[in-house]
Amino acid sequence: MFSCYLVLDSSSAKSDLAYENRERGFTMAKMCSLALFPPLPYGQITLCESNNELLSGTSSDEALKQDFIPPSLHFPRESLKLHSRPESSSKAAFLDHSETLWMRSAAAWRDGGLSGLLNEITTSHSEAPKWLSVTSGCILAVLRWVSSFHGSLFPHVTLSSEDMITEFSQVLNWPDCVVRAFSWHPHTDKFAVALLDDSIKIYNPKSAITPTLKHRLQRNVAAVQWKPLCASALAVACQNCLLVWHVDPCSLSTRPSSSCAQVLSHPGHSPVTSIAWSPSGSLLLSASPMDMSMMVWDVAAE
Q1: Over residues 143-148, mean pLDDT
Q2: Distance CA 67, CA 46 (A)
Q3: What digits encode the pLDDT tens for the residues 55-108?
Q4: Which superfamily does CATH assign the domain made up of 164-301 to?
């Protein structure tokens, strides 16, 4: 009588199982590509998506189209109140009054920086000392030459803030587009939409309340981005800064206070045209056409 014993190598079995899992995982990973999905039946097209399922049919299959009528939002341009004209353009509404050279110089420094100050002193021949006027004119000429040379190397830096946002925004025809930015929340059923008047509305199909976010620094919005692993934080790329809104999803307020917004800014880093959160949501990255470096913000520590 012969006895036969089958000896199983546990390490070999584990390796075979691991190999099978790797193969299965590789197949599942490859199926994430639309090119590897099975083709549609002949003569059919993809009509819509419902409950994570792509529904197909013929172009004349109206019954299927009628079964899936997604909700839609309409934003009439007439209902969006644009910002009033800037303060500098309202000077004509006031009577002229005499100011000293130093008062005008202080105002020029505040409004136009060093070049504004030098230009004010240079053009005030009768009030400024001759040596000061000539020196200011020479320095101003050098600054303009440097600015022109820098503009020839980087033509986009000569654009205005709005033109720069138009050039680098991800939205086609940004100045006249009613919807300037849009972002789905990665984990919950809600989205944020930035409109032409720089207001941001948050829509949730499970709630009848639509919060509207407004802030005095929220001008020329170029992008919005929800924070991962958080239901309340929304980053907004603005003309002069970054705003991080913290809106309680359980709040019944339709107009959250501006104190709910955290302001992030850095000299030379504006306008902000692109933002992105780290996968953990701990860091926020921002980019500006005027800055050759990206900024990494630790929002919790700011």
Answers
A1: 72
A2: 14
A3: 787 765 555 555 556 677 888 887 776 655 444 445 555 555 567 777 887 887
A4: YVTN repeat-like/Quinoprotein amine dehydrogenase (2.130.10.10)
Mapping DSSP to helix (H, G, I), strand (E, B) and coil, where does residue 206 land?
A: coil
pLDDT in tens, 37-58: 778 888 888 777 776 777 787 7
The domain spans of the chain are 100-153, 164-301
Give the type of residue at 203. Answer: Y
Token representation of residue 152: 């020839």
The pLDDT tens digits of the residues spanning 197-214 come to 999 999 998 888 999 999
pTM: 0.62
Assign residue 46 a region (left: φ > 0; alpha: ψ between -120 and 50; beta: otherwise). beta
- The 10 Å CB-count burial string (b at 16+, else e) for 125-150 is eeebeeeebeebbeebeeeeeeeeee
- Its sign, for the CA torsion 112, 114, 117, 119, is negative
DSSP letter at 296? E
Burial of 43 from C-beta contacts in 10 A (0-12 / 13-18 / 19+): exposed
Asked if residues 221 and 238 have their Cβ atoms less than 8 Å apart, the reply is: yes
